[in-house]
Amino acid sequence: MIITRAPKGTEDLLPKDSYRWHYLEEKFKNIAKNYCYKEIRVPTFEHTELFERGVGDTTDVVEKQMYTFLDKGGRSVTLRPEGTASVARSYLENNLYADALPLKMWYELPCFRYENKQKGRLREFHQFGVEVFGAKGPEIDAEVISFAMEFLKSAGLSDMTVNINSIGCPECRKKYNEALKEYIRPHLSELCDTCKSRFERNPLRILDCKSPVCQQIVKNAPKLLDYICDDCRNHFNGLSETLGGIGIEYTVDTGIVRGLDYYTKTVFEIISGDFTVCGGGRYDGLIEEFGGDKTCAVGFGLGIERLLLRLDDLKIEIPKRDNPKIYIAPLGDRAKKEAQKLVLKLRKSGISAETDYMERGLKPQMKYADKIGAEFVLVLGDDEINTEKIRIKNMQSGQQTELDMDSLIAFFEGDR
Q1: Strands 76-79, 251-252: pairing kind
Q2: How far apart are CA 216 and CA 270, in angstroms?
Q3: Count of C-beta atoms within a 10 Å radius of residue 163
Q4: What's the CA gap between 14 and 4, in Å, rounded?
Q5: Strands (DSSP E) along 113-260, which ranges?
Q6: For the residues 385-398, what does the mean pLDDT come to?
Q7: Distance CA 353, CA 407 (A)
Q8: What is the pTM of this model?
Q9: How far is it, in rounded angstroms, from Cα 129 to Cα 136?
Q10: Which of 201, 162, 188 minimizes the C-alpha distance to 62?
Q11: What is the mean pLDDT of residues 250-260?
Q12: How far apart are CA 377 and CA 292, in angstroms?
């Protein structure tokens, strides 16, 4: 039997669509450079304990969605479900805390979660993300949000809402957890089985449950923002003030708790339509959880597939930039050899060029040139070779330009 279907929840990136990813990658990298973030790359799989301890063993990600298996040595490993825990592990393992702080990093990576396929949700998906270690104040939280907003605007989004909240620190959450449990207790028997098990261990995760019944139960639950301590309140007020100072409008959404346990203080989401296109926050306790010193940290993750879907919904077209600059259509065996030499010279000069490899006649070659989006076409025959005079046709305007053959490269260099 020939396998002809990709696994459920995965997608191929086809050549006709790759330019869209290249466009977003270029935008993200340029903004990262302007914000002075440097790239980090981490392994695709990690020891399972890393995510159990970092992400939280009562989260949906760990309880229901991780791809976990034993390797040939009997060790439990997990395909990465998100980026932050892996970057935090690398920060500790490679002594990056000895570098100049704050340490600001970005990444693009595939992640894996076992969940039902739905719009914008895949089992293998890709993220842009940033992580900052060592900065305590709310100003860096605002910078991270600004980074995300600037990238999303550059990608074409304009209808965005920034929602922020504070989920406090572990100390103020203790008081809140007791209040939340008292509120939920009369409805304990109505909760889904997963949330029943969370009630004593981590009641905050009940707020993140996707069960309609559980969502209805916690609809009017106490708000965590009403229980945060003075330090967390001052940090949240500082973030609000900083965002206002740099011109970023925001809404306080007390329902945001994020789905991962490592978050502290600031949490935020950026919404476009009914899509959460970006989410993140502060995680000041994660490095300590992994055995390091207490380290302040903040970051975000942004799903690339979800962003592309949102751009499609809004009919925002990404410009194609990888079409050939010129297609050389050879007529005859002699011209084929000359065309090979000419496209090689053009390519070495940084000019994208294509020619015929399919033994096509002129008319099929012209159709092919149009199909691949070539900007210019040069028909090359014996006359052009003998006289070294050529005509190139602009495929969009139909205008033809006559040139000496040896000035072709200069023509395109001037065009650039």
Answers
A1: unpaired
A2: 24
A3: 18
A4: 15
A5: 124-133, 160-166, 251-252
A6: 95
A7: 15
A8: 0.90
A9: 19
A10: 201
A11: 87
A12: 61
pLDDT at 320: 87
- The whole-angstrom distance between residue 326's C-alpha and the CA centroid of its chain comes to 33
DSSP 147-190: HHHHHHHHHT---EEEEEEE---HHHHHHHHHHHHHHHGGGGGG
The two tokens of residue 309 are 């879907």
d(CA 248, CA 157): 15
Confidence of residue 335 (pLDDT cuts 50, 70, 90): very high
Could you identify the residue written with the tokens 């965002």?
Answer: 243
Strands 376-380 and 353-355, by their bridges, are unpaired
pLDDT of residue 415: 59
Under a CB-based contact definition with an 8 Å cutoff, are residues 254 and 165 in contact?
yes
DSSP string, 71-96: -TTS-EEEE-S-SHHHHHHHHHHTTG
pLDDT tens digits, one per residue of 142-201:
999 999 999 999 999 999 999 999 999 989 888 988 999 999 999 999 999 889 988 888
Examine the pLDDT at 1 and tell me if it is beyond 80: no
Among 268, 287, 295, CA closest to 84: 287
DSSP conformation class of 261: T
